[in-house]
Amino acid sequence: MSENGMQKNMPEKMADFPLGKPNTEYGKYFIGQSYLAPLSMEIVPTFHVTFEPGCRNNWHIHNAEKGGGQLLICTYGRGWYQEWGKDPVELHAGDVVTIAAGVKHWHGAAKDSWFQHIAQEIPGKNTSTAWCEAVEDEDYLKLK
Ligand code: MN
User: Fold this and answer.
1) How confident is the model at residue 8 (pLDDT cuts 50, 70, 90)?
2) Cα 46 vs. chain centroid, distance in angstroms?
3) CB 72 within 8 A of CB 66
4) What is the number of helices (H) and of strands (E) in the chain?
5) Ligand 1 centre from 94 Cα, in Å?
């Protein structure tokens, strides 16, 4: 690949899931370069997401009238998950994060590590994602 994400020296070997394509559709809701690989679109839409070092998504909420939410299964590297009003949680391969519908949060890489997770979009009634403000450098760069 010759995408600009290569500038940050993508590791030769990451998780045994596809890298997919540069995440252009949702790129406006991310800081930094991410990649998205659909793994399955049946029953539970499932994606493998790759974040370059420093890349994270904006604060967002997975809304649903019933059910919904998101499950993250970390597959490579080091990253962060934070819920609004709570301390950030450091993530490593093997960690699982359950995100209930309606909870404002963000997830992404550590500043010095590539990071990958599987994201499962839990089915529900009238599901949608509300994108909010960015995670500013001032806050993000305080994280180790
Ligand atoms: Mn999310």
Assistant:
1) confident
2) 12
3) no
4) 1, 14
5) 17
